[in-house]
Design brief:
The radius of gyration is 15 Å and the shape is rod-shaped. It is 94% helix and 0% strand. It has one helix spanning 2-33. The protein contains one helix and no strands. The longest helix is centred in the middle third of the chain and has 32 residues, at 2-33. With 34 residues, it is mainly α.
Length: 34
Amino acid sequence: MLTIENRKPQFYFVLETKCMGLKTAWVLLLVRNK
């Protein structure tokens, strides 16, 4: 049970970091177009 509980936060953390990367890349693209 401990391993599963420890893995869940990491999984969500990776998802959050990926979403942040996509957002920053999108913002950079918008700034470059302007």
